[in-house]
Write a structure and sequence with these properties.
Blueprint: E1 8-16, E2 19-28, E3 31-42, E4 52-62, E5 65-71, E6 83-86, H1 93-101
Antiparallel strand pairs: 1-2, 2-3, 3-4, 4-5, 5-6
């Protein structure tokens, strides 16, 4: 902490659309900044599937949001796609399919506001 706001390295957690997100990385003047990893745990549905937890994103943050990085980085615990991503860029079919099917993420409404993986014109 510096002057009452996060500064340095730290973790932030947030629940969005039946999932739990972990941000672990840098902070600058209270905002996510620098290299970071984001993990996602889908809440399991009793009797249907157990909770899943995997690294969703590894990359750079600036001013509180993701700017570029890799979706589903290795090691290949579940999905070894290693898809490069930049803010505002289109997701390739493989990444879009995994987000939509396995993780049930279909638009930015299904993600924390600091992880805008879908371009604005794709949002529903």
């Amino acid at each position: 902490m510096r002057e009452g706001v996060p500064h340095g390295r730290g973790m932030h957690t947030e629940d969005v659309s039946d999932a739990h997100f972990w941000y672990e990385g840098g902070w600058k003047e209270g905002k996510m900044h620098g290299k970071a990893e984001v993990e996602l745990q889908e809440f399991g549905i009793e009797g249907e599937h157990p909770p899943m937890r995997a690294t969703l994103f590894s990359g750079e943050f600036e001013g509180g949001t993701a700017t570029k990085g890799t979706l589903f980085p290795g090691p290949p615990v579940a999905i070894p796609l290693n898809v490069k991503w930049e803010a505002g860029g289109k997701l390739d079919d493989a990444a879009r399919g995994e987000l939509s099917n396995m993780y049930e993420r279909r638009s930015n409404d299904d993600l924390p506001n600091w992880l805008p993986l879908f371009p604005a014109d794709d949002d529903e």
